[in-house]
Design a protein that fits this description.
By secondary structure, the protein is of the alpha/beta class. Helix content is 33%, strand content 17%.
Length: 258
C-alpha cells in the first residue's frame, strides 16, 4: 500500500496514543452514526471501526480513499469520496450523527460553519485543529480571541478544550501546536430570537470588531437614533444572551420601520 501524500493543508497524526485519546473523547452509544472528516491515513478510522457504531468516513483525496479501502476492505461500502463542505449530508444520513476528525488547518473554520448548518442533528463533535483556533472557539466574551465562531458555537454547544498536541506527533510536523476540543450540544433547541438574523448580526458586528456596534450595524439599520444600551459596546464585549437581546432589538427596529 502506498501511503497518501499530504493534501489540503493536512498533517497526518502518527502518535497512536493521541489517536486513542481523541476517539475515547467522543461520547457515543451502540448504533450511533459517526461522520469522520478527512481520515487521511486512517489513524482514527481503525480505532473507530472497533466501536459498535455506524462509521462514515468522508475523504476528498482519491489516494487516501484507495489506501483506506486497501487497509480496511470493510470501508468499500462505507467511505464517502466527497468534499464535506459541499456534500449533501441528507443523501447519506437521515438522523443524528456525531462528528470526529483531524481537521485540515486551512478549512477548519469552514467545517465548523457547516456543522452549524446541522446543529440540531449533531449531539457531539471531537476534533483536532490548530491550537489558536481551539482557543478562539472556547474563548469567553472580553478576550481578544473571542469572535464569530466563539459566539455561534457557544450558543448551541458546550465547548471543552481537552488537550494540546505537539508538532512531533505528526508527519510532516506542522509549524504550529494543535489542540483537541469537544463540542457537546446544549439544551438550546432554538434561540429566543430570529436565528437567521442572529447569525447576520454577529457576522456584521465582528466584521468591524474595533467599532462600536452603533457604527458597525449601520448596514442592517439605517436609523440608529437610539440610546439602546448595547449600541455603545463592541462585539467582543457581548455574550450569547446579549447578542440575543441585540438581535431582538434589531428586529423590533426593522418592524417599526416598515
Amino acid at each position: 500500500m502506498v501511503r497518501p501524500k499530504k493534501h489540503l493543508g493536512q498533517h497526518f497524526l502518527t502518535d497512536h496514543s493521541i489517536a486513542g485519546r481523541i476517539v475515547d473523547a467522543l461520547n457515543t452509544a451502540s448504533g450511533d452514526t459517526v461522520l469522520e472528516i478527512g481520515p487521511g491515513t486512517g489513524v482514527l478510522t481503525g480505532l473507530l471501526l472497533e466501536k459498535e457504531i455506524r462509521l462514515l468516513p468522508v475523504e476528498i483525496d482519491s489516494e487516501s480513499v484507495i489506501y483506506l479501502k486497501q487497509k480496511w476492505p470493510v470501508l468499500d461500502d462505507l467511505i464517502i469520496e466527497k468534499d464535506f463542505l459541499k456534500m449533501n449530508i441528507d443523501d447519506h444520513i437521515t438522523g443524528p450523527f456525531h462528528v470526529i476528525g483531524n481537521f485540515p488547518y486551512n478549512i477548519s473554520s469552514q467545517i465548523f460553519f457547516r456543522v452549524l448548518d446541522y446543529r440540531q442533528r449533531v449531539p457531539s463533535l471531537v476534533c483536532m485543529i490548530q491550537k489558536e483556533v481551539a482557543n478562539r472557539i472556547a474563548s469567553p466574551p472580553g478576550s481578544k480571541e473571542y469572535g464569530i465562531l466563539s459566539v455561534l458555537l457557544q450558543a448551541y454547544f458546550d465547548i471543552e478544550n481537552l488537550f494540546t498536541v505537539k508538532p512531533g506527533s505528526f508527519f510532516p510536523p506542522p509549524r504550529v501546536t494543535s489542540g483537541v476540543i469537544r463540542l457537546s450540544r446544549n439544551n438550546t433547541v432554538t434561540l429566543p430570537c430570529d436565528e437567521k438574523l442572529f447569525f447576520k448580526v454577529i457576522k456584521t458586528t465582528f466584521n468591524q470588531r474595533r467599532k462600536m456596534i452603533r457604527n458597525s450595524i449601520k448596514s442592517i439599520l439605517l436609523n440608529l437614533d437610539s440610546d439602546f444600551e448595547l449600541l455603545s459596546k463592541r462585539p467582543e464585549q457581548l455574550g450569547v444572551p446579549e447578542f440575543i437581546k441585540l438581535t431582538n432589538w434589531v428586529e423590533s427596529q426593522q418592524t417599526a420601520e416598515l
